[in-house]
Amino acid sequence: MCLLLYYQGKFYNYPLSLFNALSNLGIIQSFLILVSYLRAKLRAKLNPDFEPETFEEWVIDCFGRRLYRIFFKTYTEKVWGIPCTQIRADWAAQRIQNMSLKRAVINAVFKSQNAKSLIKEFKYPVLGPGMMWERCQEKLESQGAPVYLHTTVTRIEREGTRIKRITAKQGDETLQFTGDHFISSMPVTALLYRLDPPPPDHVLEAAKGLNYRDFLIVSLVINQQDLFPDNWIYIHSPEFKVGRIQNFKNWSPAMVPDPSKTCLGMEYFCSEGDQLWELSDVELIELASREAIDLNIGVNQGDVEDGVVIRQHKAYPVYDGEYRKHLQVIQEYIQTFENLQTVGRNGMHRYNNQDHSMLTAMLAVKNILGENHDLWNVNVERSYHEEFTTKELPKNPQRQLVAK
Hints:
Blueprint lengths: L2 E5 L2 E5 L3 H29 L8 H9 L1 H7 L1 H8 L8 H7 L5 H10 L19 H13 L9 E8 L2 E9 L2 E6 L3 E3 L3 H6 L1 E2 L4 H8 L2 E12 L9 E4 L8 E4 H4 L10 E9 L4 H4 L2 H14 L9 E15 L4 H12 L5 E3 L1 H4 L6 H15 L36
Parallel strand pairs: 1-9, 3-7, 6-13
Antiparallel strand pairs: 1-2, 3-4, 4-5, 8-11, 8-12, 9-10, 10-11
C-alpha cells in the first residue's frame, strides 16, 4: 500500500521517509520540530504524574506541539468535525499505537514496522472488497438461504425476551420473516426504534444519546491513463474540504475498465444535515473536480469526464463523553433477549475494523450452534476503541496485493 500526506502544497511519504520529510520541511522547520519534541519530553520528565486527557495533549506528549499542528490537528478535525481538544486521549492511544517521533524516525531509517498505524501490505480483491460479499451471497443462496437486497426492516416483533417476526419493505412489497435466531448488523439505535412493543423509556433515551459521523465519496472519471502511483493521499491542509483521495486503479487495474482512464475517489467526512452533506450531487462533483485540480495531483482543467456521489449514513460511531454510559444501558438490554445477537461496527456501536466486525458475526453463528462467546469482548485489546468528546455533539448539525 502506497500512501501520501499532503500539507501546504507538498507531499510526504507515509510511513515516514526521513529524507523526504527533511526535504519538504526544510532545515529550520525540522530543527523547530525537534526542539518542540524535546520540550515535550522535558515537560514529561518534570511532571511524571501528568496524564493526557485529550487527543491534543496525547499527540503533543508523543510528537511535540509543532508536529501535532502539521500532521495531526487538521486531518483529525476534518474526520470528526470537532476540535482535538474535545477528543479523548484514549482514542489516540489506541489508534496510533506504539508511535512517537523517536519511533517514527527509527522506522524511517531502519525500515522497521511495529506500530499499528504503519501497516504497509494487505490483500485486496481484484474488483474491490464488494467481491467478498458477492461471494458470500452466492454461497448463502447455493445453500437455500436467499439474500434480500434493497430491503428495509420496518418492524421487529417481540414477545417478552424473544424476537418472533421481522417485517420489511422491498420497494412496494411487504415481506415478513420468522425464525428461531436473529443476528442484527443494523445500527443499534435503528434496531431499538423498530422493536414492537418498544423498549423501556430509559433504553430509548440511551439510544438517543448515541451519535454518528457520516461520509460521502465523489468518484471522478479522469481522462488520463495514470496520475500518481499511490493508493491514498491524505489531505491535511485546511483550505481543502476533501479529507482523503483514493486512486482505485492503483488498488487494482481491473477496477477501471477503460485502461486509458483513471478513477479517483474524493472522500468527504460530514454529518447529515450540515452544509457539505446538503450540497447537490452536481455541486459536490464540481467541488471535487475543482479540488482535484487545485491539489496539483496531475488532474488538469477539462480532464474530469464524469462523476458520481455515494453517501454513507452512520459510517462512524462517535464515542462522546456520554457514549459509554448510553451503550452500557443498551448492551444490558439487548443481552436479555434469548434469540437476538448484534454484530459489526453499527450493530455494536463500536469503531472496529472490518476483520473484527466479521469475527463478531462468525462467533454469533457459533453461539447459535451451541458455543458461548461474549461478542462484546471480542478482541477488545486489539480493536480500535475510540472514546470521544467530553461534551455532547450537536444532534444534527499500500502496495497492491490482489486476493486469489
